Structure prediction request, 207 residues.
Amino acid sequence: MSDDQPGTDWVNAVLAEYGAHRAEVVAAAGTQQQTLAFGATAVGLVVAGAFNVWSNRLLASAAFLGAVPLLCVFVLVQWVGYAAGLIRVGLYLEHLEDALRTAYPAAPPQVFVWEKTLAAATRRGNWWKASYEWHDFGAIAMFTLLAYGSIALGAYRAYARHEAAVTAVVLLEILMLSGIAGRFLYDVAKSRRRVRESFEADREADA
Prediction:
């Protein structure tokens, strides 16, 4: 690429922006994994503490029915937020790749196709085939199951002589947790298409 080539200034700006956003993706992905690790550690510590005070019905029940499910929800909020941000940045990078390939049609076909091929493979793939998006769904399922298990343990510990109250609390928590997990799964599954439609609408509006 020579400096006297038409459009060099904006191409350099796009390249710089592309590099900055790729660095953002790497950093956000690392933070997302750290959130998962810290969340799992925090849940493990609370569970261990609850078993250590198992003889104290109030403390053990509060930990299993309250603290652990709340921690799981907080971790999922962080996880899904990072996942949505990574999807948006990835689609934006895909548009930058399109712009660069349009500016340099003679460039090798293997240049600036990472996000495009990644998105194309996801759109073509069947849901039962391995996909890089599985880790988002897996994290949601894992922490949801941890919360369900914790609620079951808390109900078991608190049930005697408080049957009606414990049943009501457990049903309420299960309904709320199922609604939150279902919403997160739906948002992760549909967010890529929504962001793509938003970008396409903005492009048509600017045309």
Q: What stands out?
A: The radius of gyration is 23 Å. Residues 8-206 form one domain. Residues 57-103 form the longest helix (47 residues). The chain has one domain: 8-206.
